[in-house]
Amino acid sequence: MADTVKFELVSPERLLFSADVESVVVPGSEGDFGVLPGHARLISTVRPGVISIFQNGKVTDRIFVEGGFAEVTGTGCTVLAEHAVPVSELQRESAQQAIQDAREDIEDAKDDVARKEAAKALEVAEARLQAIDVVVY
User: Which residues, 6+ apart, have CB-to-CB distance to 134 below 8 Å?
Assistant: First the structure.
């Protein structure tokens, strides 16, 4: 068994990250899950949150994703993300403004579809702010 996992992060536009890593933690819809070499096969939806990439026992990269899908095999993990950006590029003021805008959109929604879209935008904006504020690992 190898001591690394092939991790790839792909957005609709391009391949964002591709490397052999020690491990990766993905924000799955049912909770965060870590991927190590030899992991059981798994397919999961990804919620808005931070992917943490580990090398030599520490986090080397933190990437915010808005959602998507993850596929895990015994040798690798591929995340197909709706949108992704390094946490270091997130801005607190933008996240706070997006939260305020989404809350107003929820209040102003004329129907369930608009309310659902605004609620999704609020979920993403709150996750962005949490990504800026919280370093879990």
Answer: none
Length reported for the chain = 137
Residue for token pair 């939260």 = 99
Which amino acid belongs to residue 111?
A: D
Beta carbons of 65 and 130 less than 8 angstroms apart: no
The DSSP line for the chain is --S-EEEEEE-SS-EEEEEEESEEEEEETTEEEEE-TTPPPEEEEE-SEEEEEEETTEEEEEEEE--EEEEE-SSEEEEEESSEEEGGG--HHHHHHHHHHHHHHHHH--SHHHHHHHHHHHHHHHHHHHHHH----
Q: Which pLDDT tens digits describe the chain residue by residue (137 residues)?
A: 479 999 999 998 889 999 999 999 999 999 999 999 999 999 999 999 999 999 999 999 999 999 999 999 989 999 999 999 999 999 999 999 999 999 999 999 999 999 999 999 999 999 999 999 987 66
Cα 43 to Cα 41: distance, rounded to the nearest angstrom: 7
- Is the whole model's pTM more than 0.70, yes or no? yes
